[in-house]
Design a protein that fits this description.
47 residues; alpha+beta; Dissimilatory Siroheme-sulfite Reductase, Chain: A, domain 1; two-stranded antiparallel ribbon
Length: 47
């Protein structure tokens, strides 16, 4: 599955995790949180 953010496509694995960790950025993290219904803090491991 791919996630489009800011005109770029980011590949994810079958569980929705980012396939290439070097692609990580705050905008992408926010978009991923919106897609799976989770809060930003869960993505950065603060929950």
């Amino acid at each position: 599955m791919a996630l489009e953010v800011g005109g770029k496509s980011f590949e994810t694995d079958e569980e929705g995790y980012l396939a290439n960790l070097n692609d990580w950025n705050p905008d992408l993290a926010n978009a991923m949180a919106e897609v799976d219904g989770q809060h930003w803090m869960k993505i950065i491991g603060k929950l």
